[in-house]
Amino acid sequence: MTESQTARRTVLAAGAAALAGGTLAACGGEEKKPATEPAGPSTPSAGAPAASSPASSPMASAPPQAARPLIDSSKVPVGGGTVLKEAKLVVTQPTAGSFRCFSAVCPHQGCLVNKVADGTVDCPCHGSRFQVADGAVTHGPATRGLEEKKIVVAPNGEISLA
Questions:
Q1: Sequence-separated contacts (24+) of 146-149 with Cβ below 8 Å
Q2: Whole-angstrom distance between the N-terminal and C-terminal Cα of the chain?
Q3: What integer best gives the mean pLDDT of the chain?
Q4: On the chain, which terminus has fewer CB atoms closer than 10 Å, C or N?
């Protein structure tokens, strides 16, 4: 074999390997994770410096974001729930007086769930359904349940993030 034939085979083999690698990467996992996770209201972000004094933070006198009510408990039906589209949350009441809160972002492909019916929280994109009681998957393609958020219910019925 000549040197040019060897070089040609090497180039062809390298090109085939590169194409195969690109094809395999394109067929990667089914679940989509957000590029960034927003930090919770009481959780500082990993890279954020801590405030050294009240004067160093322009928002030092602002009330904590967790105190803002999400919804009144009277607007959350027993055995069902309410999707809070703007907040990307869903608040459920599996049994009378028991409230739960979950991310409204479906863990399958990142769509927002759009309704709560017949004891499930439903995603319109690919048909995943989740239990109102604990956010667990009842019907795929999602393989993980909805992320639970901590909430508090005030004596006046207002529900807020904890």
A1: 146/90, 146/102, 146/103, 146/104, 146/105, 146/106, 146/107, 146/113, 146/121, 147/102, 147/103, 147/105, 147/107, 148/100, 148/101, 148/102, 148/103, 149/40, 149/89, 149/101, 149/102, 149/103
A2: 74
A3: 72
A4: N
Asked whether the beta carbons of 104 and 85 are under 8 A apart, the reply is yes
* Three-state secondary structure call for residue 111: coil
- Both tokens assigned to 50: 């801590």
How is residue 33 annotated by DSSP?
-
For 19-59, write each residue's pLDDT tens digit.
455 443 433 444 444 443 344 444 333 444 444 444 433 43
> What does the alpha-carbon distance between residue 88 and residue 31 come to, in Å, rounded to a whole number?
18
Instruction: Please list, residue by residue across 117-155, b when 16 or more beta carbons sit within 10 angstroms of its beta carbon and e when fewer do.
Output: eebbbbbeeeebbbbbeebebeeeebeebbeebebebee
Q: Quick one: average pLDDT of 144-152?
A: 92
pLDDT score at 44: 39
What are all long-range contacts of 63-68, with beta carbons under 8 Å and residues at least 24 apart?
Answer: 65/41, 65/161, 66/41, 66/42, 66/160, 66/161, 66/162, 67/160, 68/160
Is residue 84 within 8 Å of 95, Cβ to Cβ? no
